[in-house]
Write a structure and sequence with these properties.
It is a single chain. With 157 residues, the protein is of the alpha+beta class. Helices cover 31% and strands 29% of the residues. It has one domain: 2-Layer Sandwich (Beta-Lactamase). The strands form two sheets. Strands 4-7-6-5 form a four-stranded antiparallel beta sheet. A hairpin with a 2-residue loop joins strand 5 and strand 6. The structure holds heme C. The site of heme C has 27 residues, from helix 1, helix 2, helix 4 and strand 7.
Length: 157
């Protein structure tokens, strides 16, 4: 969780990165930022991606690694519909707005029990480059980063 926040800061400091287009990072996957494209001298197409695309990829890799973790970003002012808060996220985001700094709960998704944990993501000066247009100011809760850890193996104890 802490590491993912560090990634977010790194991406924000650098304003995003260019990656080679593949079957996941497609040229039409952006919702908001200008879709900057570059063609290299080798003929590869590079696409500008923001931290959300990268996070989704990292969370996907986590999920496929067999640990069953489900992770996502969430916000009341979500730009991407995929980041719409669910019941647990909403409760957590409201707590963060009151000053709490973490939230957790045992939670069921598709009849499977998960330990759900969420941390707030606050607006830092670097975030305003993009999220400034949403009227945020430094220190505001921009959203949260959430992870659901399956309880199956712990339920047997
Ligand atoms: C280079 C532009 C850029 C910067 C800098 C940036 N973001 Fe984002 N952020 C985006 C875009 C674009 C999206 C939605 C894109 C998507 O999911 O396709 C997004 C989505 C999010 C979301 C998910 C909710 C939503 O709106 O869908 C959170 C939470 C978030 N950003 C937090 C932050 C924080 C905190 C910082 C600073 C530490 C930051 N962002 C810096 C561009 C940026």
């Amino acid at each position: 969780m802490k590491r993912k926040k560090i990634y977010l800061l790194w991406f924000s400091n650098n304003g995003g990165v260019f990656v080679k287009v593949n079957d996941k990072i497609k040229s039409d996957s952006k919702l908001w930022l200008k879709n900057d494209k570059e063609i290299t001298s080798h003929g590869d197409t590079l696409l500008f991606v923001n931290h959300s695309d990268i996070f989704r990829e990292i969370f996907d890799i986590d999920a496929k690694n067999g640990n069953g973790f489900i992770g996502h970003l969430s916000s009341f002012q979500n730009i991407n519909p995929l980041d719409t808060p669910d019941v647990f996220d909403k409760e957590s985001l409201l707590r963060f707005e009151k000053g709490e700094t973490e939230s957790s709960k045992i939670y069921s998704i598709n009849n499977r029990r998960y330990f759900s944990y969420m941390n707030p993501l606050y607006i830092e000066p670097e975030c305003l480059k993009c999220h400034g247009v949403q009227d945020y100011k430094v220190g505001d809760v921009r959203g949260g980063i959430c992870i659901h850890v399956p309880m199956d193996k712990y339920d047997t104890f």
